[in-house]
Specification:
Strand content: under 5%
Largest sheet: none
Shape: globular
Radius of gyration: 35 Å
Distance between the termini: 97 Å
Amino acid sequence: MSASSAPNSPPSSPVPTEEQPAPVHDYSLSKPVFFIAGGIILLAVLFALVLPDAFNSTISTLNSTVVNSIGWYYVLIVTVFVVFGIVVAASRMGNIRLGKDDDEPEYSVFSWFAMLFAAGMGIGLVFWGAAEPLTFFSENGAPPNAAGLEEPARAERALGQTFLHWGLHAWGIYVVVGLAVAYAVHRKGRPVSIRWALEPILGKRTNTWVGDLIDIIALVGTLFGIATSLGFGVNQIAAGLDHLGVLPNSTLVQVVIVLVVTALATLSAASGVDKGIKFLSNLNMGLAAILLVAVLILGPTLFLLRDIVSNVGYYLQNFLQLSFQTLPFRGEEGATWISSWTTFYWGWWISWSPFVGVFIARISKGRTVREFITGVLLVPTALTFLWFTIMGGTALYKAVMEGIDFTGGTGDIDPNIALFETFSHLPAGTLLSGVAVVLVSIFFITSADSGAFVMDMIAHKGNPNPPRITRIFWASASGVIAASLIWVSSLSGDEEATGMTALQSLALLSALPFSIVMIGMCISLWRSLGKEVKVIERLELRLRQREFMERYSGEISDQVEAQVEAQVEAHVVEHLQTYTGEMQLPPQDGAGGTPQGGPARGRRKGKNPFSRDS
């Protein structure tokens, strides 16, 4: 979508709707959104830098209270989002195109998948690919209802639980936000911003302080999410370099890594979607595919092929049970585990959904609603299952079949090095680890650059191509915040209780109000798509009626004409007979009718006025 098309000639819907036409938009900087969001971010970062321990304690306590109290709500609403997406895709709403009816997709299928996958959760797949299944298999990290199972059953349950956290539910969240924004932007011609997805509900209030508040929540949650991901994810890069013997894992090395990744992300964000972001996303998908195939070949190939089929079957068989799992009868242990994992993931995906949703909406013009939902919901889920089965399945095979202890005797899994330790037990393990470090680094860059692009679109009232200078600002800000918090945490001497952890908690807290926004998006989508379907059905009915008349009008006209002629002739004859007094003569020689000599029925009495005898 070009920057010049939206304000002057927004793409119009091919069918009439009751909504107002798209307003003319100047795409200038939204000062309330930018400065209020910037003020909140600045205060939070200053608090985290000056009083990291107090900030962490306060925010973490608040986050734990919220998550423990409404964990059931997150579990329920995320499942509703998945069902909503499937219903919309399967209905007639799925035929509606995100754009004009003759619009074609801007990006190829491969580039589209690569960009949405890299922005959505690419970095997390590398980080948790082996770590999460191993954690759920370990003694200290297993779900409370799986701790007593034998190793084979516990391994199967570990991958099934991992599939829940990274499968349909995660992408179902992105579907709701992405589809709502894409419909508003490409179908209705609105700016690329969260607020316009709620226009069917907000109406004229969309472009007031209410809309500003929605965009502020999205902007703050996105920046905190990206900053904390850079901060925590850099640990894996540093651990990988240390594992390879390249550089020791130290605070200085971590800060340098963050700054280098930020600099590359800034260059990519400055080049735009069509150049840097697209190129890096395609490169990442290629590297990920090479790494995946290499582990499949070098690892227990036949076991992994069987495991893929088994894991998908387990996930489908236990989908409903896992979707609504809250472990109420497991007491405090169950509540703690759910809040630490499932509820945490749902809150994390929701907090990231403004960023990912707006980005995939930006790159999805020209696709139908059904194609969008299928592409965003099913294809990344299938690739995610394949990734976790090969990476996590290989690690579990080593643990169950070969007795390798990845916990080091402590019973806990270190997620920073779990993948590298798995590779160390495979041929060419050093090479695989090197590729993984490069892969996770590029995933960091694609997350940061696409995040900066989205934040700048929101800050500029939905400009699909925001100014380069502010894109550079947002990309730089996320990296500087992460590097500063890492450095301050090292000075405090307690790297576990840091301001970075508190920023992560703030990102999770932003998920609560935004989940309400997402419910509004579902309602808005249902209303708007439903109206279009009704209009389309009325137009189709008129078209069928017109085709019927054109097809059968000739035959009907001939039949009607013949019937009319016959009826007219009959009426004329009847009236003439009545007026002239003509009558039907009785049969001669008693052949039927009345008896000879008897009165003829229906005979008119009196003389015929037209008779010669009169």
